[in-house]
Amino acid sequence: MSDAQQAELTAEEVSEQKQVRLEKRDRMIELGLVPYPLSVPVTTSIDAVVAKYPDLEPDTKTGQTVGISGRVMHIRNTGKLAFAALQSGTGVKIQAMLSLAEVGEEALAQWKEFVDLGDQVFVAGEVISSRRGELSVMATEWRMTSKSLRPLPTLHTELSEETRVRQRYLDLITREGARQMVQTRAATNASLRATFAEHGFTEVETPMLQTLHGGAAARPFSTHSNAFDTELFLRIAPELYLKRALVGGLERVFEINRNFRNEGADSTHSPEFAMLEAYQAHGDYNSIADLTQELVQNAAKAASGDGSMVVTWADGTKFDLGGEWPRISMYESLSEKSGVTITPETSLDELAALAAREGVEVKLPTHGKLVEELWEHFVKGELERPTFVMDFPVDTSPLTAMHRSKPGVVEKWDLYVRGFELATGYSELIDPVDQRARFVEQAREAARGDDEAMQLDEEFLTAMEFGMPPTGGMGMGLDRLLMALTGLGIRETVLFPLVK
Predict the structure, then answer these.
(1) One-character DSSP codes across 170-192
(2) pTM assigned to the model
(3) 313 phi and psi, to 5 degrees?
(4) Which residues form the Aminoacyl-transfer RNA synthetases class-II family profile domain (predicted)?
(5) Over the stretch 296-348, which tens digit does the pLDDT of each residue have?
(6) Per the annotation, where are the binding residues?
């Protein structure tokens, strides 16, 4: 049995301990004690006390009386003394000391009878340091704040990944890395918003329930509205609504949102995920690439904790997100790595032959799909450093403007970090006539069986016909950004990921 497995108690062990704890709960109620009070007289936090007294000399009294609350992570009872390590929500610990002289015989006896590992308790008393120099609260009273009916996992071994994901609350209680991820994610979101504010962007919100799914090539989740008696879709992207905002005159907009795609789940994909999208009037795919690099690099500074663009992954690896990121051509890099010259004019038969030779399978192959799959086969895995892959095939990019100087490609980039796609950016297609033709072609692909093809959105086309300014747009998965900043898989970066 592995250490991770040993950390988790058997169902029988949990059942036995739960029964004992239920009996303690009932006994407390019989005695008039409250196992789940509505409030306790907390005066400060464990974190604040520890921050105030970082280097208290051994066997010292401060004269400060506090009321604190925390979870019991270690407990030791002796004859006239009881000790407990109380942990705050951030993982900071302080020792609670209960002595017969300070709390009295009855309170000490009740502590020994009723308090278990995992319980949340309140203690009030003077802040001191023990003879061993351990910062402590010498309690004059204590109360149960929440009786834990289930035992904590064994604290000296790690939880299995399955348990960490399914019972994240246990992960947060027992593992510093889980708590740190929450803080890193919050710091990252704050950094993104601050960078957008510096550039004059407005944060907006768009519908999560949509009558048509669009803005990306993906399979949607569908649902039914009883009020409207109509089928609705959970959004796969906010793009088409954010572009409506640009038509309305909001020239710089962004949204941090939840998207849903009814597709596979693996180390880089989740059916529900957090997405950042931004659109800047009078920008293009070059200026939006500059902005994206700034957003990620500022997030790295926030995540590193020291203002550096060098982040430390969970395995200790240092990863440098600084400097100017290279920009490479999709077609040129594919030609170089495959040893075959591939251009927008390369025939479908030639691409299909190369794919067959390399064992690359493509459902409903088109020129663009084959080029992108072959590029992933030959090039993607070698891109460790952040890299913008520029200039994509036309038929796979229905919302993107044609390249202004290179025939047969569109002004689109994908940003790859550590070999996975982190973000994508466009010079947006603003010609409503061309956009309608692209949607019609997508409808043909849907008729051929492509369940990721976009639908023709008449309301969006109507908005475009009122005039949308030249625009640069980008989208970035926030869960994947956290992957780049921490080196973890997507299920570790999401606080409560969807699991079967």
Answers:
(1) HHHHH-HHHHHHHHHHHHHHHHH
(2) 0.89
(3) -80, 170
(4) 190-497
(5) 999 999 998 888 999 999 889 999 999 999 999 999 999 999 999 999 999 99
(6) 414, 421
